[in-house]
Design brief:
By secondary structure, this protein is an alpha+beta fold. It is about 30% helix and about 20% strand. The protein has helices at about 1-15, 20-30, 40-50, 55-65, 70-75, 125-135, 215-220, 230-240, 275-285, and strands spanning about 85-90, 105, 115, 155-160, 170-180, 180-190, 195-200, 245-255, 255-265. α1 (about 1-15) runs antiparallel to α2 (about 20-30).
């Protein structure tokens, strides 16, 4: 109860005292003070970027899951955009009868605002609309002080449902790009099982000792570089050129690259799972 009260208080004050709120969130998560004057690790530097970079309109554009499509196209990467079925100002504008049997609904102004429908006949549309309406009313930027989401004009997107040949989710490939160059890729596998595993590789597909990759290294047993990896790397280089840091997310489906999103604050700069990566990735980010 006390913890929830603190979170609510921080959310309410985020717009007035954003830096103080960021410091409070950091201390709650890591039990140490946030050093914004001389940040060293990755999480600290992500916090620094919030207050020194994100006033640029390009961050609002690219954090917007709808308008980022304009940016991707402007970089010559429009061919990797997922098919878009519709864009809506409110849930009441969604014509479910006109949608295919499988689709994905998402709000454009934050993270985790996703509803995956793999069987329209089983979808409770009233419940879905209530959830979408609740998300649209939420100021995602205030939850953990992520100002790039603040000025986004809120929309609902409906996109093509992506699945592999087994009917499961395709693997995620998340490229950590620093000063315009991809440095590492995080591969997310087994999402459909509800217990995803995260593996890190450098740009030559050498495993990095972060998270679940440690187990792979000890066993000398990790997957081969997938078909399409070099294509994803090339797209990442094009899309990363304007940023000190950006994580570029792709799906890989039968060798075809599908754009996911651009992420500027992974885990809001509060990622406790990074550990060794926090230091190593932090050394790559030049402020």
């Amino acid at each position: 109860m006390i913890k929830q009260t603190v979170k609510s208080a921080l959310k309410l004050s985020a717009g007035i005292f954003p830096e103080s709120c960021a410091k409070a969130h950091y201390y709650i998560k890591f039990k140490k003070k946030l050093n914004l004057s001389n940040p060293t690790n990755f999480n600290e530097k992500i916090q620094w970027l919030k207050f020194n970079e994100f006033n640029n309109a390009i961050y609002t554009l690219c954090a917007d899951k709808y308008k980022v499509r304009e940016y991707v196209s402007s970089k010559g990467c429009g061919d990797i955009l997922n098919e878009l079925y519709g864009v809506y100002d409110s849930p009441e504008h969604i014509n479910y009868d006109a949608l295919p049997e499988k689709f994905a609904l998402k709000c454009n102004h934050g993270a985790g605002y996703n509803i995956i429908c793999d069987d329209k006949s089983a979808l409770d549309t009233e419940k879905t609309n209530r959830q979408l309406g609740k998300w649209l009313r939420e100021d995602f930027s205030s939850l953990f002080v992520e100002p790039q989401y603040k000025k986004i004009e809120r929309k609902i997107l409906c996109e093509k449902f992506i699945e592999n040949e087994r009917g499961g989710f395709p693997d995620d490939y998340k490229f950590y790009c620093f000063n315009g160059k991809p440095y590492a890729v995080m591969v997310c596998k087994e999402r459909e099982k509800g217990t995803p595993k995260f593996y890190y590789f450098d740009m030559n597909w050498n495993p990095l000792p972060f998270e679940d990759t440690v187990e792979l290294i000890s066993k000398n047993d990790y997957p081969a570089m997938p078909d399409g990896f070099m294509k994803m790397k090339a797209y990442a280089i094009k899309l990363a050129s304007d940023f000190k840091f950006v994580r570029i997310d792709f799906y890989l489906l039968n060798g075809d690259v599908i754009f996911g999103e651009l992420t500027f604050t992974p885990s809001a700069g509060l990622d406790v799972t990074l550990q060794e990566a926090d230091v190593i990735l932090g050394s790559q980010l030049k402020l």
